[in-house]
TrEMBL record:
Keywords: Membrane, Transmembrane, Transmembrane helix. It comes from the Bacteria. Its main location: membrane. This is Calcium:proton antiporter.
Amino acid sequence: MATKPGPLTTVGTTVVPLVALVVLALTWGRDLPGPVVVLVTLCLAGAVLSAVHHAEVVAHRVGEPFGSLVLAVAVTVIEVALIVTLMADGGAKSSSLARDTVFAAVMITCNGIVGLALLVGALRNRVAAFNTEGTVAALATVATLATLSLVLPTFTTSAPGPEFSTAQLAFAAVVSFALYLLFVAMQTVRHREYFLPVTRDGEVLDQEDHAHPPTNRETFLSLALLFAALVAVVGNAKGVSPTIESGVDAAGLPQAFVGVVIAMLVLLPEALAAYRSARRDRVQISLNLAHGSAIASIGLTIPAIAIASIWLNGPLTLGLGATHMVLLALTVVVSVLTVVPGRATLMQGGVHLVLFASFVFLAISP
């Protein structure tokens, strides 16, 4: 997937995640002064770059679409752990944290990352080509999971407010996890060829023409460092969140915007990996990352929250408001029109980026 890194790159991407973890351990749960916030932010940025590098090493060894799956699942598992931790500490004020985080992840991946990938791919080759069968299946899974978990709670009547009853939450958790497992099985086993890069003529690219794959030892080392880098990304993002909250309050912005900023920080590894794949004419890999992250975000978060609700106190708000439902519906419609032809131009990339910009703007000015 990528050319073999040089010694300096290898040393840097090995040391940076470890330094970021040390900084995380020293700053966790403390009020940080300005200079320390800058240090934590630098560590976060370095951990993002390291995570992308090690994800590419692992992907080069295991091949696609397994490589995209590794990064998407690793980020989501750590993100879910962070959500549960914050909800346990936040009490009633964090009742909508899972909903806000998951919806932000869907908008960032399906509009921001997809739009960026299509834009880069179209700028390079005039037309960005991808596999229709796999992309449509992924999009259908995203739309189903998002509707079942984020839209239906607004309209159900068994519990007051935009919430599921206990039975409804259990059902949503089971079907979300089952649908996620079904998608992974299709992506990696039964229809793996649907998720491989294609040329503009529709030819599947199953072989990489770059450096030799890394050894097993190098792969396992990169997998461990990938996990360390992602822990550092999510942990340091939480560390700077009080500063972000203070900045948001000082600017007079809605408190919900904090969740959008945190989601953007957490999804930086996927965004950068998708950008780099699009530059290599592997737009399908970029779409695998985007849609796979959205599917994992819902398919793993909802079951985890359902289990955590056993001991968490307070309500669990999952239903979206009218504005966000309109954005979600528009995203699904535009995405269908984008992926069905199997080819996209600058126009489609621009439309998705406008939808992403609209989401950010409405988070600032609801």
